[in-house]
Design a protein that fits this description.
alpha/beta; OB fold (Dihydrolipoamide Acetyltransferase, E2P); Ribonucleotide Reductase Protein R1, domain 1; 3 domains; 13 strands; globular
Length: 315
Amino acid sequence: MATPSPLETGLVIAGHGRHVWVETPDGRRLICHPRGKKSQTVVGDHVLWQASEDEGTIEKVQPRRNLFYRQDEIRTKSFAANLDQVLILIAAEPEFSESQLARALIAAEAEHIRPIIALNKSDLAEPFQRAWARMGVYRDMGYTILPMALKPKGDNIPNTEHHLDAVLAGKTTLVLGPSGSGKSTLINRLIPDAQVLTNAISTALNSGKHTTTSTTLYWVDTAKTTAVIDSPGFQEFGLNHIEPMHLASLMPDIKAHASDCKFYNCSHLHEPGCGVIAALQKASDGYLPAGPHEISTNRYKIYSSLFAELSQKRY
């Protein structure tokens, strides 16, 4: 009887169905399959695998630091694991959904992953000014907001790429954004050979050439200290994995006043003595540049809507 091959370590850099593309510490890449019927691996996982002819079998997924995912009534969609940060790319035009942005931020907060917001199309003066003003409440909460012009139109557009390079350096970053936000342009600018690499992986995994249908990890530098993970565009972002009573703790502006409530189990919707409602009543309009301790009317509407949605989720 042949002696089994020893277990080796690897990093999952792409996947399609039950097949994953694993990179070894010495730079080799090979297709691996899960042991059993269901694949539990996602991009960013560190795994132990065993060689089998010219491919491999995943024997174990190492413990994760975190897992960024979304969940609705039908299914759970895992984006990536072991992240340092999530770069949420939105555009000044067409107008982005603040509810969608809030959902992505909440998912990141829930997994203790640093979120960064990049606002594209800074070259479109009026739309960008409006969008930048809308971002004021997020700057006040302490989120990093990066202005970007991935396909600049006109002259005298400030170069902000060095800011992005500094933010990404030495980190593993998931790039997230709705379709049309400029995500593919950003990935191709960071990794000029991304299309070539994606096509090679797609061919190997027999997953076609639709680059937006799968998640892929790319190394930005030759030393492999900086990684960017490209994910499919999305239009919906379910948060069914979040308990409604936990929601306030994941929204910094709501959380800042939740400890002032009279009742420990306050929903911040109707209870007397609610610190959140009291703070909201002091607001004069939707966006206040007064700091992280103010709650905008719009943000409170997002909280209320999400609380109702999560309270009605199916089990």
